[in-house]
Amino acid sequence: MSQYLSDHVHLGDDLTSVVILDQTLLPNRVEYLTLREPEEMFEAIRLLRVRGAPAIGICAGYCLAALAQQRKDLKPDEFRQELHRLAQYLNASRPTAVNLSWALNRLGKRAHAMPDADPPAAAAALREEAIAIHQEDIAMCRAISEHGLALIHDGDGVLTHCNAGPLATSQYGTALGPLLLGKERGMNFQVFADETRPLLQGARLTSYELHNAGIDVTLICDNMASMVMKNGWINACFVGCDRVAANGDAANKIGTSGVAILAKHYGIPFYVLGPTSTIDLSCPAGDDIQIELRDPEEIKSKFYAQPMAPAGVKCYNPAFDVTDHSLIAGIVTEKGVCRPPYTQSLAALFA
């Protein structure tokens, strides 16, 4: 894999900025952005210049650490108040991915644990915490990849939706991790990647990552998933997740629940892969997950030379849907594969 696929979010050399690969420009252009202002960071997350739940968490940690470094000359009380304000601001950029609030809360707890520290020392501690989040994600992705690889065999056909590869995480990814790890070990898979309307993460990112890795990938429109399953070409479905409720309901990119329903009909196991940081035991069920609604123009005009719908037509554009736990064969974490009943197996991860 190219180096930028595994180092697409990192702290700037000056420690006061965050450098990201602008994923909105892929696959045609590879450009990095340097984020220094809170508004730039908010916009990068909101507009999906950085996306994927784990990558958002990594980016948020680095953003808060960089902003803390910029403000290390404030008085201690002013520093803590400003840190709290900035964390709340960044957290409002996207409501569904739990890793965003998880990372910001983790840095907040680190700061609260040293109330008597001067701002330079606190800023250094936050930087250490952000780096730890990144390093832990690399280890988690490797472990998830190992556990996921045990669920498939050489030559299998795998269908995936949206993007949960290195670009969405740190290295390997979650849903794509087993495929990339298997390829490194000489295994071959036939992957079918849903294009993932309306922002085309499957077309722009997943097919890009898999093709560059030398994996046999076929891009399909979202409404073709049923056909490839009926043809007998799919042995398993692998998807990532942005939040998993305590009962196993999983929020992921819009269209995921439809894939799960089709897989159930055709007798194909449907797996959700993600780190334990994505599991939210404080959220009882999928109905309690806030679903982000996005700009209608993403449907009507974003990728077209001219609008493909009447100017005044209404649009419903949820960014995510929730897959019911009854459709999920297993939830793959860095600690292993959780099986039903998920209220018990997920809780056991944190026991």
E-strand count:
14
Mean pLDDT: 95
Spatially, the strands of the biggest sheet line up as 6-5-4-7-10-13-14
Identify low-pLDDT runs: none
- Supply the CATH superfamily name of the largest domain: Translation initiation factor eif-2b, domain 2
Give a short account of the largest sheet.
Answer: 7 strands, mixed
- Estimate nothing, just give the exact number of structural domains: 2
Order of helices and strands: HEEEHHHHHEHEHEHEEEHEEHEEEH
Termini gap: 36 Å
> For the record, what CATH class of the largest domain applies?
Alpha Beta
- Radius of gyration (CA) equals 20 Å
Structure description:
- The protein folds into 2 domains: 3-141, Up-down Bundle (Four Helix Bundle (Hemerythrin (Met), subunit A)); 148-349, 3-Layer(aba) Sandwich (Rossmann fold), CATH 3.40.50.10470.
- Helices cover 40% and strands 15% of the residues.
- The protein contains 12 helices and 14 strands.
- The protein has a 7-stranded mixed beta sheet with strand order 6-5-4-7-10-13-14. Strands 11-8-9-12 form a 4-stranded mixed beta sheet, with helices on one face.
- A hairpin with a 4-residue loop joins strand 8 and strand 9.
- Helix 4 (76-91) runs antiparallel to helix 5 (98-112).
- It is globular, with a radius of gyration of 20 Å.
Question: What's the arrangement of secondary structure elements?
Answer:
Layout: H1 3-6, E1 9-11, E2 18-21, E3 32-35, H2 38-46, H3 53-70, H4 76-91, H5 98-112, H6 119-149, E4 157-160, H7 177-184, E5 190-194, H8 201-212, E6 216-220, H9 225-230, E7 236-239, E8 243-245, E9 250-253, H10 256-266, E10 270-273, E11 279-280, H11 297-300, E12 320-323, E13 330-333, E14 336-338, H12 342-349
Parallel strand pairs: 4-5, 4-7, 5-6, 7-10, 8-11, 10-13
Antiparallel strand pairs: 1-2, 2-3, 8-9, 9-12, 13-14
Helix pairs in contact: 2-4, 3-4, 3-5, 3-6, 4-5, 5-6, 6-7
